[in-house]
ABC transporter ATP-binding protein
Amino acid sequence: MNLYDKRGRLLIVFTLLLGGISAVLSAFISIILQKVIDSAARNDMDSFSKLILATLIYLAILGTMGFLEAYCGKLMIKNVTKALRDKVFLGVMKRSPREFSSQNTADYLSALINDVKLVEENHLIPLLLCTQMGVLFLTTLGILLYLSPLVTAVLFLFLMLMFMLPALLGKKIQKKQDAYSEKLAEFTAKSKDFFNGFEVIRGYSMRPYILKKFTRINRDTADRKMAADTLLAVNECFSDILSAVSVLVIVFVSSYLMMKGRITAGTLLALIQLSGTFVTPVVMLMQNIPKITGIRPVLKHLEAYSHTQEDVPDEEEPSCGPALLKAGITCTDVTFGYVPEQNVLQDISLTIAPGTKCALLGESGGGKTTLIKLLTGYYDDFAGDIRYDGIPIGKLSQDKLNRMAAVIHQNIFLFDTDIYNNICLGETFSKEQLDDAVKASGISRFLPGLEKGLHTAVGENGQNLSGGQRQRIAVARALIRSTPLLIMDEGTSAIDRQTAHEIEEDLLRQENLTVLTITHHMDETLMDCYDRIYYLKDGRISCTQMGV
Ligand SMILES: Nc1ncnc2c1ncn2[C@@H]1O[C@H](COP(=O)(O)OP(=O)(O)OP(=O)(O)O)[C@@H](O)[C@H]1O
């Protein structure tokens, strides 16, 4: 996957350039060392004092370059990880409902948090390091050749050995990293499930059972990480041994050359110092190249979730203002199934005229929710025809559909913010619109009891509020937008009869509002408020016209 955009590429080139300059500068310390020792051996005070000045300038440049390189590196990591999280989040948000629900939400979380972290640790940081080390290696090689071709040849021999190892271990490390990333996603999914099920775990004394399950998945995850880390440790250990051996070999060979009078004491020290700077890059490259190649499966995983500008044209900004329902909604011969050859709905035809109140009854599993999903554009692979004001549903944008119909779901979702934000959902409304919605939805009935009024925090998923209060907030969301059709999908099932009755009655009283209530059992006292009652059985629909 493409991690860098145009600006990102420029930044990485600049950072790598700075890294290269820093590496070249740090290799030159050996030359300073050689000159200082040799001028001291010659008792050359003039060149010695010039060298002090040159060293001070050298240190100032080295420090500045080092800072700039570190700063740009961090900026690059920040930009890439931020862009990656943006792409993954947008990609997941743009999924169709079918695609979205095909994956556990914890997998999305894991991609967003764990995988992005892995990219930072096992791709970006090693990449910067490898480039710097590559330049350091080449510069050191140049200086070494200048000082002693023989010593360089000996070092090269060891180098060949050191480079063989990452090539051998690379593929294995890649496999282990992949297995770890997979387990980490499972670990996140399970932990999320356990936290979500806190009430059930507590209520059914499941703690020992859950603890056992958690311990097992925690251990498996840690084991997978350990398996990857063990291979990395083997890699690191071999490279450390080879590094120590090559430094010792240099010490012996160059000492021998000095004894033979072929090099000066300054060159000897410079060679020993260089052997360190020559081996370090090789060790670093050995340790980091497998990490970079091992990240490929994680990048593939992230790519599968990511949205790129080229994918799909970006959504238009939501249009403002209420939509109108003039001719109503018609369904003609609609047939749909989740699985081929197993239709949940069969030849459904119905009409919902503007301002009418309709009820859709049926046994559990009869297809009521499925029909609502088709009416609100959730699935589009149905046979038959659904029209809003004569326009086929497929021709309406999701935004337009959202402005025409709002659903009060069985489980109301509230964001972890206050009541006001849960009604407005990021849009701006006038005080009058807000007051009207608060009154019509019945929120005004419980508002005086809340110290902070509309700015009362609802808690995670609305846990600070009662079921009825949550329902009323969901109703207010639709009313404030003057959404012409309001669909209650068992919207009152989670609350007591009295509250359910009150909410339903409040809605049925709204003259211009078109209401479709989905329920198992009709509230007998409200029966007369409905214009039509549809009944869904075995995927087929029948209709009773009221007041005829
Ligand atoms: N996402 C899905 N994938 C596969 N089958 C599904 C899916 N959603 C629902 N079904 C199946 O479709 C059938 C109708 O389900 P639906 O939720 O529409 O019924 P319902 O009438 O709303 O039920 P209830 O009153 O219990 O909520 C059921 O057999 C159900 O198992």
Notes: The chain has 17 helices and ten strands. The radius of gyration is 35 Å.
